[in-house]
Task: structure prediction
Amino acid sequence: MTLLVVLGFISILLWGSPWGGYLLYPFSILATWFHEMGHGLAAMAFGNDFERLVIFPDGSGYAMHFSEAEPSRFSQAMIAASGLLGPTFAGCMLILAARTHKATQIALALLGVALLGSTLIWVRSMTGWLVLPALGAISLGLAFYGREKYRRFAVQFLGVQGCISIYRDFGYLFSEGGVMEGRMQRSDTGYIADALFLPYWFWGAVITAMMGAMVIWSLKRAHRA
Result:
């Protein structure tokens, strides 16, 4: 658990430094992939067609999905929330996977296959095509050829990058929207507010509490290992 806390602290310091963003850039793209895949998979779960996933060079992105019928307010809210919770959920699952040798290998293999498979099926942007397959190949290489200590460190590091999305996305959670590719876009909490009526900052607080609970739970479970 101490290593996880240290990795999280160092990562936050790097994100706050002028050059740290460049060092962690691939993991910023990975976090965006977690986020947009959360939207896309949730959309599929509610019967929508997940058409494409686009990631821009600045780390922003979107998941495009369609529904033949008018979507319910509940499904709209859940799809929006799934993107916000995606990086934290993935990070917590990776942290838990680091508890055993076999789970560590399986987690890296599944992540690698998911990155490569989603690139072939849904990704439609140059940034995604360049970064995601490279991360997928590295994950598979570590899963099948890496030493155990390197596999475990990689899973823990990737898990921490997902979990610190609380820090990175805090401003976005409490905003009505922002600029993406020169256009104003409604934030996910804004979409939830539109669907469920309560203000966006209320849903930002709810999502933040859920993220915090997930991280605390995973750290406690990791500590017991």
Summary: The mean pLDDT is 90.
